[in-house]
């Protein structure tokens, strides 16, 4: 019982890895370099692509509606995920054993916050789509103030969920309760985390099934009367398909990881959860790579706006280069002219000296 009363806040993470019997889960130096290079390329794409999505929503007035504001917030969560993956890649392997407890909490907190933000955003978007489709409208009647409050609520919940282990729900003072995948997270927290996220998955799938059934019945009724109504109301159906595609990719990429976390929380010793750790991380990165591609592929207006932004950036850099080249040319011309003037003056002086002599 004395072991439960002793806390190990000052111990490095290697102490907790050894406590969880993690000895062979270290990256080889060559593997680590390859992972860091490939992962950095993917993360740069994630950060830049989601930044373009946010800029597209901000610059195009056609996107100034609740759905697109929430979609930009979802892109912001993927933007944070890209930063979290970069930080994770350069603080893994042997370095992870040298981390302090607070450093490990910060590393995992970034990942948990980005995941919570993505999941909560998807839930809010599902509710917004449900309200708009049940009224058979392209966009809901949410005001900008309410959308701002929803976005603030999403990030408040996400930050809290990311900080829960560091606030006390951990096993630093009770080593027998530590999990395997996260050596300072208690197994009860992993059970709560995985079950709550899986329940949210089911809720969102249920909402979109309800929307799909409603849209199908409404379309059959409208088809019986006129085809113009369907043409006029195609946009909300497209928006639903976009969000359903994003949700489907999210569920496919994150459900295996949540199931493995649940197995670890239930202390399944025969499951060998460490074997799936790297593959599950790859799926998580893949999901953040897919989302901006889905936005631009499913929405022609979004893709057009992104292309225009890219052209503006390229033209801006070209203008800067041309202006620099012009400045260099002008400075070169000025120096050449000054040299010619100096040479002419020197020749005049030399001729006058010769004549006087």
Describe it.
Helix content is 78%, strand content 0%. The model is unreliable at 229-233 (pLDDT under 50). By secondary structure, the chain is an all-alpha fold. Helix 10 runs antiparallel to helix 11. The termini are far apart.
Q: How is the secondary structure organized here?
A:
Blueprint: H1 2-5, H2 13-19, H3 29-59, H4 66-89, H5 94-98, H6 101-134, H7 144-163, H8 187-225, H9 228-232, H10 234-265, H11 277-298, H12 300-356
Helix pairs in contact: 3-4, 3-11, 3-12, 4-6, 4-11, 6-7, 6-8, 6-10, 8-10, 10-11, 11-12
Overall shape: globular
CATH superfamily: Rhodopsin 7-helix transmembrane proteins
Q: What can be said about the biggest beta sheet?
A: none
Structural class based on helices, strands and sheet pairing: mainly alpha
Strand content range: under 5%
Question: What low-confidence regions span 5 or more consecutive residues with pLDDT below 50?
Answer: 229-233
CATH class category name: Mainly Alpha
Order of helix and strand elements from N to C terminus: HHHHHHHHHHHH
**What name does the CATH topology carry?**
Rhopdopsin 7-helix transmembrane proteins
Helical segment count: 12
CATH architectural type: Up-down Bundle
The count of β-strands is 0
Cα separation of the termini:
112 Å
């Amino acid at each position: 019982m004395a072991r439960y009363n002793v806390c190990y806040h000052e111990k490095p993470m290697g102490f907790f890895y050894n406590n969880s019997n993690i000895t062979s889960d270290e990256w080889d130096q060559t593997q680590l370099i390859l992972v860091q290079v490939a992962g950095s390329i993917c993360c740069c794409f994630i950060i830049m692509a989601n930044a373009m999505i946010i800029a597209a929503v901000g610059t195009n007035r056609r996107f100034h509606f609740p759905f697109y504001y929430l979609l930009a917030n979802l892109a912001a969560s993927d933007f944070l995920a890209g930063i979290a993956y970069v930080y994770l890649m350069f603080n893994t392997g042997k370095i992870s054993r040298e981390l302090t407890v607070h450093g490990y909490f910060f590393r995992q907190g970034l990942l948990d916050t980005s995941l919570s933000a993505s999941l909560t955003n998807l839930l809010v978007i599902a509710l917004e789509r449900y309200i708009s489709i049940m009224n058979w409208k392209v966009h809901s009647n949410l005001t900008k103030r309410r959308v701002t409050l929803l976005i603030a609520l999403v990030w408040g919940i996400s930050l809290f969920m990311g900080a829960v282990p560091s606030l006390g729900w951990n096993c630093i003072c009770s080593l027998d309760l530590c999990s395997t995948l996260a050596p300072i997270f208690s197994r009860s927290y992993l059970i709560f985390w995985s079950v709550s996220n899986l329940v949210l998955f089911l809720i969102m799938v249920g909402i979109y099934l309800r929307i799909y059934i409603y849209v199908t019945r409404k379309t059959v009724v409208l088809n019986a009367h006129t085809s113009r109504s369907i043409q006029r109301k195609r946009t909300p159906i497209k928006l639903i398909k976009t969000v359903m595609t994003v949700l489907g990719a999210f569920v496919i990429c994150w459900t295996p990881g949540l199931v493995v976390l649940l197995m670890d929380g239930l202390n399944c010793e025969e499951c060998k959860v460490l074997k799936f750790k790297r593959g599950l991380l790859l799926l998580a990165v893949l999901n953040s790579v897919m989302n901006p591609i889905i936005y631009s592929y499913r929405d022609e207006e979004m893709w057009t706006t992104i292309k225009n932004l890219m052209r503006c950036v390229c033209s801006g850099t070209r203008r800067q280069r041309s202006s620099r080249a012009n400045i260099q040319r002008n400075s070169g011309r000025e120096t050449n002219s000054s040299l010619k003037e100096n040479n002419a003056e020197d020749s005049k002086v030399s001729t006058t000296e010769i004549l006087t002599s």
